[in-house]
Specification:
By secondary structure, the chain is α/β, with parallel strands linked by helices. The protein folds into two domains: 2-112, Conserved hypothetical protein from pyrococcus furiosus pfu- 392566-001, ParB domain (Alpha-Beta Complex); 115-187, no CATH class. Helix content is 21%, strand content 31%. The protein is built from four helices and ten strands; from the N terminus they run E-E-E-H-E-E-H-E-E-H-E-E-H-E. Strand 8 and strand 9 form a beta hairpin. Helix 1 crosses helix 2 (64-75). The chain is globular and about 40 Å long.
């Protein structure tokens, strides 16, 4: 059976930032595995298949770290669907999600660089051509106010938000983009058409 990763929900509220020793990606950061998927040194089939179970009319998994990799890859446009196999329910003690499985918190720095770069580029493209015109009436003159969002670099980096001790040593400082809004006022006349 194949499912989109976004059709599968997390069963836990948080995940470790590395894979366990029993996998091919043992002791590897989940973000590094995602980078391998992006650059082609890993494939969907080289990562162990996710098991899913049906609960409350939705698909859930206990393979939350692998799901994080696949969901992030789907959000970045790297893949559309993954092979899964169905299992029966789980021990209720392992079902710890607090938000219905829609998201999960990664404990520590997830690692990786390529996926962060792609994510940043997607964010930049999202705002690149964004503008909004708002009609503003000021006394007897009518103005169109144009808001244009321009990306700017910030001095902070992504590893500032990590609780991993050696994240700055392992991962170079990455650019953090924020937006700067410039306001342009142009006078215009309004024509009423009846």
């Amino acid at each position: 059976m194949y499912l989109r990763p976004t059709e599968i929900l997390y069963s836990q509220d948080s995940i470790a930032n590395t894979f366990e020793r029993s996998t091919r990606h043992r002791n590897m950061y989940i973000g590094d595995t995602l980078d391998e998927l992006i650059n082609g040194s890993a494939t969907v089939t080289s990562i162990p298949t996710i098991s899913v179970f049906w609960r409350n009319d939705k698909w859930f998994t206990l393979d939350n770290r692998r799901l994080w990799v696949f969901r992030t890859a789907e959000e970045l446009g790297i893949l559309n669907s993954i092979p899964v196999y169905e299992t029966s329910g789980i021990n209720s003690n392992k079902f710890t999600t607090c938000n219905g499985g829609s998201s999960v918190r990664v404990r520590g720095n997830p690692g990786g660089f390529a996926w962060r770069q792609l994510s940043t580029e997607r964010s930049m493209n999202q705002y690149e051509n964004y503008s909004r015109t708002q009609l503003h009436n000021s006394g007897s003159s009518d103005y169109n106010i144009m808001y244009t969002v321009q990306p700017i670099r910030s001095s902070s980096n992504l590893s500032d938000y990590s609780d991993t001790e050696h994240s700055d040593e392992y991962y170079p400082r990455l650019p953090n983009y924020s937006t700067q809004i410039s306001i342009e006022k142009t006078e215009s006349r309004i024509k009423w058409i009846y």
